Amino acid sequence: MPNSRPESRDSGDLRLVRTAHADSLEIVDPESGRSAVVVRPGEDVLVMDDLVRLDRLASAATNLAASPDAHRELIDLVEAEPLPVLTGLSWIIALWCVACEVRTGMSAIEGARGLDYHGAWRRTPAPDDEHMWNALTQRVRIGVLAALSEDEQARRAFAQAIANPPGVARALAHHTVVLMDGFRQDMTSNGLRPQHLLTTFAEHTHPTTHPRRCFTPSRQP
C-alpha cells in the first residue's frame, strides 16, 4: 500500500517508504526533504538473497574478530563467480551512494567517482603500491558507476576490468571490501547507519516480471 512506512532505525533517520510498486521503496530524508526511489534488480541480473549475503560478508570481513572466516568465504565466492559477486558488491555501494545523495545533496554519480579510503587498512605506500591502489580503486568506481547507470557499455567495461589481468578479481574483492568499510565510516559521519539498509529494502520489496531502472536521481523538496 503506498505511503505505508517501514522505517529503518539502523539507517539514521532516513525513512524507507513503500511505493505503488512492489519492487521498490522510496528513501526519504525528512531533514533535507530529498527522496529517491530505488527499484529491486531483476532476479536474472542479481538475486536479492545473494546481495544480502554479500552485504553481511563485506561487513564481517573488516571486523577483526570475524574477518578470517568471512574473508575466506567471500574469496571463495569471487573465485567461483567473479562477475556476479563483484557486480553485487557494486550494487550495494550504489545503494549507499543514493542514500548519501538523499542526505547530503551530492549526486550518487559524484559520490561513486570520489570513492576512496584513507583509514587504518591503508598503509603508507611505496610508489608502486600507490599505483596499484589507484588502479584497483578506479576499477571499483567503474563497477559502481555501471550499477548506477545500468549502461551496457559500462557493464562491459567493468566485466573487462575484473577479468584482466587474470586473478585480479580476488584482489579487487578485498579492495572493494576495504572501500566499503571506509564508506560506512563516511556515512556514519553524516548521521547514516547502513548496517541494515539493504536488509530492510530486501524485506519490504518483491521481484517482478517487469524490471525497471534501479537508480534514478533524487527528487528535491
List the helices and strands and how they pair.
Blueprint lengths: L9 E4 L1 E4 L5 E5 L6 E5 L8 H13 L6 H14 L1 H23 L3 H6 L13 H23 L2 H10 L6 H22 L7 H7 L18
Antiparallel strand pairs: 2-3, 3-4
Helix pairs in contact: 1-2, 1-3, 2-3, 2-7, 3-5, 3-7, 5-6, 5-7
Concise structural overview:
The chain has 221 residues and is mainly alpha-helical. Helices cover 53% and strands 8% of the residues.
Strand % is: 5-15%
Uncertain segments are: 7-11
Distinct helical segment count? 8
The radius of gyration computed from the alpha-carbon positions, rounded to a whole number of angstroms, is: 17 Å
| Helix fraction bin | 40-55%
Residue-averaged pLDDT, rounded? 88
What kind of sheet is the major sheet?
Answer: 3 strands, antiparallel
